[in-house]
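for the record, two folds in this file. i put them one after another cuz i was lazy. first one right below, seq on top, structure tokens after. the second one comes after a little note so u can tell where it starts
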Amino acid sequence: MSPRTSTGPKAKPSFDSLPDGGYVRFSQLVPAVVPASRSTLWRWVKARKFPAPAKLSDGVTAWRVGDVRAFLAAQEGGTK
């Protein structure tokens, strides 16, 4: 099974099936989609190498799926 998919009655939708306008929380993002540690991801955000998250409400921070996909596409394009 791909690390971006999940199954079962309480399974979260896979990253690939989410709409670009959707949001993904940290626990759904690292390490399943972005292979980095918590501190590395926040260091990338601070250095503007990774998209900044949106504050959806008190205690809820999430990244726009489309922004994360653009980051991943840029990374794949840079390694070829």
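(here's the note) second protein begins now
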Amino acid sequence: MPDSIDFPVYLFFINFIFMILSMTGYGRGEAQDGDICYQVEIKSLNSKNTDIRCKLPEGFIQEEILIRQLVKEEVMRGRVEVLVTDLSQGESVATNINESILKVYYNKLKKIALDLEENTESILPALIRNQDIMKGQTASISKAQWNVVYDALKDSIRALSQFRTEEGKVLAKELSQRAFIIDKLIPEIEKFEGERIEKLKERLQRNLEDFIHKDKIDQNRFEQEILFYIEKLDITEEKIRLRQHCKYFEEQINTPDPQSGKVLSFIAQEMGREINTLGAKAQHFELQQIVVQMKDELEKIKEQLANVL
């Protein structure tokens, strides 16, 4: 069994075709129109379902639905965090104070403080932190504001897509390399099959002679039972199916479908089923070592697939 296997990248055309996308990524966009300036940041993480969470400035109640729709069309799957920051407020926040509520609160609290003979200096700083008093934004945003946010959102989505595409290239190479190694280990199994059968026969003969004297063994019946037993331990079908799964796995990496992660995960499960069966039927030390190496490569594939869209 070889210690390592060289991976010919050209064999799988990975340098030419990158179809899979990563679920994790980050994108940031910024747009400005006069005094209006907004920044949009998008971060996507692994998730089986689509979960979009938005953190928006006050006044984006109606626009939040549209933002979610635009983001969902691009990310398709994963946990996504959208952060919209108003960079144009600056010192204007201080003018958005509900003076009538401030005066009512202040006068009532001041009266209570005087009755209790407490210091009144801390009342005003505490009231400024009250959300009812510091309005920060109007009830809705203007069309001009939305246009700026929309441009920033498009730029952030574009940056996120580029990030996920680049990550997908890395994932594609990694997945192809692991599947290639598993496929190239199948001929290594075949090297031990003849020796494996002979050792099985010798072990069965030896075990039988421990219980029955050699002269009393019906050799014809014994040979029939051996053939029947060996047929049950035959691994030809498992090798054929595993090789086919590896081929199909590679084809799916290069499929035009951007959401190929679920299909790849299913194929990996089928690969694991065949590898486990090979291990159960092996009855041979060196062959078991190859199966262990296959399982190790498959585990690495599953780890990477958790991040594929």
